[in-house]
Specification:
The chain is an alpha/beta fold. Helices cover about 45% and strands about 20% of the residues. The longest helix has about 35 residues.
Length: about 425
Amino acid sequence: MTDKYITVTQLTRYIKYKIDTDNNLQEVFLKGEISNFKAHTRGHYYFTIKDEGSRINAIMFSSQTKKIKFTPTDGMKVLVTGKISVYEANGGYQIYVSDMLEDGVGNLYIAYEQLKQKLEKEGLFDPKKKKKIPKIPKRVGVITAPTGAAIRDILSTIKRRFPLTEVILLPALVQGAEAAPSIIKQIKNAENFNLDTLIIGRGGGSIEDMWCFNDENVAYSMERCPIPIISAVGHEIDFTIADFVADLRAPTPTGAAEMAVPNKLDVINYIEQLNIRSKKVIKNKIDFLNQKLVEIKNKYVLRNPLSIYEVKEQQFDYILEKLKYNMIQLYNQKEKKYLNIMSSYIFKEPIKLIDPRKNKYIQLLSKLETLSPLSTIKRGYSILRKDDKIITQKKDLKKKDKLEIELMDGKVNMEVI
């Protein structure tokens, strides 16, 4: 009864045989857009060729890649020539490319570059706006699919590195048309959990699989989120818009977990170093204070406290003696000055102070009288004036001048003839 059943390998080989012997599939000409491109270290190219409706895996061996004149990248439109065959290990059919020509840039790549330039101009990528990731978080949130390798890697990494950190899973779709709204909803929901850090991402995949992380509204939601964000889109080579907006970019979910929490061994070593340093600082401080105490205890004053009193007592005696001496000197000066004043003739014969002043007054009156013009007039002289000016010479007069003559007993007017 079991003779009619065949193995999977037998079926796969039969399908491969049928495809390999189909002349229509021995030389196929395809055009499409490159996605999920990887260049192997041995020179082989692995990628996907897709259009709006479907995709096919492709491989181009190093012997063929040497012939092409450009470097393939995701989003590039190409024209390829090759044969279709089956890869027995996974039963998938693929095209083995023998030649490839550049046919322009794909629509997804153009959309990605346009959005990137727009958000960069708006400042969403500005390094100055990046929030600092806490070194030792108490609670980390993770927005990703609830099943799959990404969440398992994050949980196991955090548990291994720093099990004291609590992890809050915020499940979201990370692929497909509804992925972007789901991620935006959970970014807003994350604000309700008092998180220190938020990880957003998924495992690897093609550019189409991860396109929700190139969504404009997801970028704005990340930029507005008050929680520091680590992007964890599992594609080490290519960047998504979310990688540029995030406060820190990790190439994989495991890398994001390692960036989110410290290594417990490093923390323990750091604490031990702080303990050693603090003990050393305290010991140095105690040694310094002990040395100061010894110096103070050995001071002469503390060993001979009476010396302070003795010095001050001696200083007091010196000041007191100096004060007495100065008082006596001042008294003697004042007494001498007093005796000099009392022995002055002013106090003994004050009348002599008046007579000299009287004699001087009489002398001044005599001089004043001698110089007075009235005295001159009394001696027979007169004063001749013309227009209130004294005339002393004849030449100052002319006929008809009106003159005034002052005599001892009055004034007389006259005219020159």
